[in-house]
């Protein structure tokens, strides 16, 4: 969380910093600040709240903005200290010569703070970052060299960080450092950029150096030097950035979320391309690095993920157990890391993460790597930390997802898991579902059109969204392979509308949650023709008998049962197995239109951040 940006060159730094921060707002948005260096002076401007507030502040500082060609900036998602102006970055030391922005958490900040207080440092904020500012300044006092000060300081810091620092006595450089928090240096012509993520710099350059953990760098306008953890200079590895600037435009949609929901047809086509050739052909997964022989030795699968990615993993369990006949456990990464987990060389561990930067999942993957398990990473970011830890890297290629609420990345994760499950089953030559698999492949090929058809007829969903937008609570129920759809539908609604929504396995309703049902509690039931259909219908009857308002999301309702529902959203028919990929589109739209009707900040919901880089 938090986003950092830096610029050094001949252009007006403030414009580049503000534009960069606007593309990092998804990482956090409770305050923002920039430091502008001109000559041997540094001016700092900060504002509480969203970036627009900082832009307002800068309108009155145009003289400084015009003359500053070097600067660093930050957008904050508070961890230590309230989201106030004083806690906003950049932070400085006593003499204000050094200015710093930081992403991450300094775990030993209390200990360091006590040492620095004893040395006379005066703290103004409640942040852990200010400790780093004083610490580096303290080291500068011993070395008179910003690079050396940074190198010495990071060795004393425990925790995660990406730092950008400038110093009045070294006005030709920005010094950066990284450990367990993303940082990329954009390489330009007579100018260079620093950012937490590519969208911040993609409009200026397509060349970049990804800093690795424990590296420190000196970025000048015409040179970049990177040092490893032994403080030795290493050669720069310049890579080509994968995103086009167009990906960060709303393309006429009111919100990125709506645009991203509408992109899902193409996202599916993209993933299937080259992997699903025809229903009769086996799935081709060149990026999955285990041989047939090794696949046959896999005794268990462990899926580790968080939030929406975890819900995709739960669907993955159903299909891997069904088609590949391998016992599969799914666990939130944050729980996985604090247990003695049993994984060995016959375990396939699948980490799922849109961003590839989720701290809990990174820690879990690092932990399990020691057990010699094969690590497959399903991610949208092939340039991420998790991707670099992968033995098999399965890219979902959904294109950059800007809205904090994950939509197209979820469907892309689902499709990747369908392909993987079929692939594993085919490698193991499991024949019991042969016909069903051919049918599933046919359905997968037709899926993009079905979803696009659904997206063309959303009037009913909009009407229902408006009707239910004033309710304070919601329950989502489903069974079988759609139980994760209920969880994900509820999460989407919660995230962007702040309505208290909970997903349950429909069979669990009578074991407790039913006590909450009355006419103020809408129940949304997912019904797909299949083995659990009748059971979910009975659970709907139970809910109706308690006066709950019932919304059905269904591919079929018999005429005799229609009166049971207050509202119905009919969806295109697909097999029960593939139904999560269709149902979720309806639930995303419902959540979107409720939030939009309520006037919520859909793309940047309160308290959330797109990539959760703290444990
Ligand atoms: O980048 P990741 O997929 O690892 O992120 C995991 C969760 O933080 C994420 O899915 C979160 O739940 C989203 N806000 C969902 O919309």
Written overview of the protein:
α8 (264-272) packs parallel to α14. Helix content is 36%, strand content 22%. The chain has 3 domains: 3-248, Aminohydrolase, N-terminal nucleophile (Ntn) domain (Glutamine Phosphoribosylpyrophosphate, subunit 1, domain 1); 256-453, Rossmann fold; 459-597, Glucose-6-phosphate isomerase like protein, domain 1 (Rossmann fold). The strands form 4 sheets. Strands 3-2-4-1-10-9-11-15 form an 8-stranded antiparallel β-sheet. A 7-stranded antiparallel β-sheet has the order 5-6-7-8-12-13-14. A 5-stranded parallel β-sheet has the order 17-16-18-19-20, with helices on both faces. α18 links the parallel β23 (523-527) and β24. The protein starts with a strand and ends in an 18-residue tail after the last helix. With 615 residues, the protein is an alpha/beta fold. The chain is built from 19 helices and 25 strands. The mean pLDDT is 94. The longest helix has 23 residues, at 434-456. The structure holds 5-amino-5-deoxy-1-O-phosphono-D-mannitol (M6R).
């Amino acid at each position: 969380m938090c986003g950092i940006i830096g610029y050094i060159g001949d252009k007006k730094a403030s414009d580049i910093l503000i534009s960069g921060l606007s593309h990092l707002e998804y990482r956090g948005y409770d305050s923002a600040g920039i430091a502008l260096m001109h000559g041997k002076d540094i001016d700092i401007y900060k504002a509480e709240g969203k970036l627009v507030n900082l832009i307002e502040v800068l309108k009155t500082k145009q003289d400084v903005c015009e003359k500053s060609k070097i600067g660093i900036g930050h957008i904050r998602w508070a961890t230590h200290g309230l989201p106030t102006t004083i806690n906003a970055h950049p932070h400085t030391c006593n003499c204000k010569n050094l200015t710093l922005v930081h992403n991450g958490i300094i775990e030993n900040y209390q200990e360091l703070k006590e040492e620095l207080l004893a040395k006379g440092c005066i703290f103004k904020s409640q942040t852990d970052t200010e400790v780093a500012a004083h610490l580096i300044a303290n080291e500068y006092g011993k070395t008179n060299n910003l690079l050396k000060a940074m190198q010495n300081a990071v060795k004393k810091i425990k925790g995660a960080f990406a730092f950008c620092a400038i110093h009045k006595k070294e006005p030709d450089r920005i010094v950066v450092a990284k450990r367990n928090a993303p940082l990329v240096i954009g390489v330009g012509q007579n100018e260079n950029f620093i950012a937490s993520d590519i969208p911040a710099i993609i409009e200026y350059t397509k060349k970049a150096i990804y800093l690795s953990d424990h590296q420190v760098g000196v970025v000048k306008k015409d040179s970049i030097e990177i040092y490893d953890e032994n403080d030795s200079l290493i050669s720069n590895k310049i890579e080509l950035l994968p995103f086009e600037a167009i990906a960060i435009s709303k393309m006429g949609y009111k919100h990125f979320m709506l645009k991203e929901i509408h992109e899902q047809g193409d996202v599916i086509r993209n993933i299937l391309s080259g992997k699903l050739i025809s229903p009769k052909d086996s799935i081709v997964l060149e990026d999955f690095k285990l041989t047939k022989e090794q696949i046959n030795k896999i005794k268990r699968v462990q899926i580790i993920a968080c939030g929406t990615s975890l819900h995709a993993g739960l669907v993955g369990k159903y299909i891997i157990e069904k088609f590949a006949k391998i016992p599969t456990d799914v666990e939130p990464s944050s729980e996985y890391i604090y247990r003695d987990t049993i994984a060995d060389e016959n375990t396939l561990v699948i980490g799922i993460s849109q961003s590839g930067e989720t701290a809990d999942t990174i820690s879990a993957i690092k932990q399990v790597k020691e057990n010699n398990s094969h690590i497959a990473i399903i991610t949208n970011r092939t340039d991420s930390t998790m991707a670099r830890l992968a033995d098999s890297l399965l890219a979902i290629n959904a294109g950059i997802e800007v809205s904090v609420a994950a939509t197209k990345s979820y469907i892309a994760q689902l499709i990747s898991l369908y392909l993987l499950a079929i692939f594993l089953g085919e490698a193991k030559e499991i024949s019991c579902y042969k016909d069903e698999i051919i049918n599933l492949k046919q359905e997968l090929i037709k899926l993009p059109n079905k979803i696009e058809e659904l997206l063309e007829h959303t009037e009913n969903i909009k009407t229902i969204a408006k009707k239910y937008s004033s309710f304070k609570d919601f329950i989502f129920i489903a069974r079988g392979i759609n139980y994760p759809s209920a969880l994900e539908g509820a999460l989407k609604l919660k995230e962007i509308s702040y309505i208290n929504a909970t997903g349950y396995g429909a069979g669990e309703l009578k074991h407790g949650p039913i006590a909450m049902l009355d006419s103020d509690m809408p129940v949304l039931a997912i019904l797909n023709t299949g083995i659990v259909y009748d059971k979910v219908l009975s659970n709907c009857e139970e809910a109706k008998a308690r006066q709950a308002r019932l919304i059905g999301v269904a591919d079929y309702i018999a005429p005799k049962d229609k009166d049971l529902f207050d509202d119905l959203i009919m969806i295109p028919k697909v097999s029960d197995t593939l139904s999560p990929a269709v149902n979720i589109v309806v639930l995303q739209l419902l959540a979107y239109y409720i939030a939009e009707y309520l006037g919520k900040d859909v793309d940047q919901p309160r308290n959330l951040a797109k990539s959760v880089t703290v444990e």
